Amino acid sequence: MKKTIIITLLVGSMLSSCNDDFLTVVPETQLSSATFFTKEADFQQAVNAAYVPLRTIFNDRAWLLGEMHSDNTYYARNPLFGATEQQEDIADFAIPTANGVTSNTHVLNQYRQDYLIIARTNQVLSTIDNVDFAAESKNNLKGQAMFLRAFAYFELVRYFGKVPLHLTPVTNREEAALPLASEEEIYVQIVKDLTEAIPMLLPKSKQEAGRVTSGAARTLLANVYINQKKWAEAETLLREVVTSNEYSLIPNYADVFSTSTSNKNNMESVFEVQFLEGSAGLNGNFIYQFMPRPMAMPEVASIMGTSNPQPLDAEGNNIPTPDIINAYEPGDTRKDVSIGYITLSGSARSNKVYPYIKKYAKPHALHNNTGTNWPVYRYSEVLLFLAEALNEQGKSGEAATFLNQVRSRAGLGEAQGDLREAIYQERRVELAFENKRWFDLVRTGRAIDVITAYGQRVKADPVAYYYPEGSQPRSHAFSNITLFYALPADEAALSPYF
């Protein structure tokens, strides 16, 4: 385990660079940058590989660290199974931390997957200009690599604050350990990558489906600026996305999200992680991880519609809380699209009815094997970002126009009351279960207060938060409410800088 950061950062070094010394002979049978990166197709393959960790991140990690680590979702206690402590520690804000590091497996794996993206993109960016091929294609590939590296660092800086800043391939153990860069240094690099990527990337109408576009890069950079409270800069980028005519709201919220086999990368999609149902190894199963448990076969079949349903045991994760359920206004059509209910015959609770995340629950063919894409950025979020950026600059009238476009699609009237709070509220329900809530709480300065109050509600009424009668949260639940995750202990063991 302790060697993994070296392995992660040395992924690119399997395609290692060689110097310009003509006496250096690269064995033809050894995979290296000299023998692999020789043509356009090689870089296409390498950029494809840089997208791959996104599937692991969004299928297995991001919902834990970004949604269940908030007041939007919780876990459903199944005393017949026992505890899944690693997940519970995240949901309960009780992650064991010592000297700034933690042994939590999910934190560790998130960190590693982001650095895997960084290692692969660094290899591409360090070699692509040395190979001659069509400029438009080269720029497109470079732009994708820059976006993906920026995206990975944006995740890392929001999760951890300070992390090592690797911008070149790591070719030996000594290079793998770097000092922790400050948040400011990391943000400077993210902005640099995205600013350079935007003119290189193609618009959605010309880009291959599923790949990063110039609109996606503008949206990510706007998100970065919003985190930094650079409202005018964010406004400029978001207006460019809006006026590009590349995106629009789908009239019916129920039609926004992909099925297992269709409706992918639709007109509202700005960027989504691609999954493919079937045996190619590109499938996901996050909707199964979101189910309350234990579930009998007929109960699974009633949601999934598969021909071979199997019962689900263990403990449920990412279950909508009473807090998010009550956050929807009367008449909000998004509520029934986003949240469903299932009665579990084997539950130890007297009330055997549980909510579940419905917006991703699409019929598919095989048990535990889906092709539903994960929405990272949607056009509705562009509109809400723009409303926020405008409102923070005192342009409340125009801000309300963009906010109300999103509300109108949900069957609601114009926003009333404090506009800032209305925007925050709208983000919560429009983007529920899309891993936005924790980041929103942190960047708006509300995380400690909101989670402290939420923890008090959970401990005061455990049954309302899916504990069987007589059960209660662990004694240390909500004892470690912090704005950043501690760095992974396994990686700290390899570095003198952690």
Automatic annotation (TrEMBL):
Keywords, alphabetical: Cell outer membrane, Membrane, Signal
GO cellular component, one term: cell outer membrane
Residues in RagB/SusD domain copies: 348-454
Cell compartment(s), UniProt: Cell outer membrane
Signal sequence extent: none
CDD domains hit by this protein: SusD (cd08977)
Name used for this protein in its record: RagB/SusD family nutrient uptake outer membrane protein
Source organism (scientific name): Adhaeribacter radiodurans
